[in-house]
Amino acid sequence: MTFDIETIPLHQVLSHLNHHLKVLDLVPCEGEWSAFAGHAEMFLNDYRWLDVTVVRGGSEGYYLHLTLVPRRHDRDPSILMAVAKGYDRPKMWKIAEATAKFLDT
User: Fold this and answer.
1) C-alpha count within 13 angstroms, C-beta hemisphere, residue 31
2) Residue 98 lies in a domain
3) What is residue 66's predicted lDDT score, i.e. its pLDDT?
4) How confident is the model at residue 1 (pLDDT cuts 50, 70, 90)?
């Protein structure tokens, strides 16, 4: 499926992304990507970069972070848009790579 991630809200982008990851058998152990605190209806537009990172959880496991870095990143803060959680570090890196490729298409 081809679509422009800047023209649909984040929750729809994540729905397409989660389906794509299921097809690749790359679903995080603790579920799917989900929008972070009130960002589900935001659009991924007017940004400089989208950053996908694997971070170690505070008490256990790993998180994937999808961060929007704004065009005016020297003035405006980055926004943590979505998260996913899992326990298998190598698999989380594979999911991060597949996510970055998906969002870059």
Assistant:
1) 9
2) yes
3) 93
4) low
The residue type of 64 is L
Assess if residue 49 is contained within a domain: yes
CA distances from residue 50 to 9, 61, 83 in whole angstroms, order as listed: 15, 23, 13
Within a domain: 36: yes
Contacts of 103 (CB under 8 A, 6+ apart): 5, 13, 17, 44, 50, 52, 66
pTM over 0.70: yes
Distance, in Å, from the CA atom of 95 to the CA atom of 100, rounded to the nearest integer, reads 9
Yes or no: say if 32 and 18 are a contact pair by the CB < 8 Å rule.
yes
Cα–Cα distance between 51 and 66 in angstroms, integer?
6
On the question of pLDDT at 2 being above 70, the answer is: no
Q: CA-CA distance, 9 to 44, in Å (whole number)?
A: 7
Q: How many domains does the chain have?
A: 1
Domain for residue 39, yes or no? yes
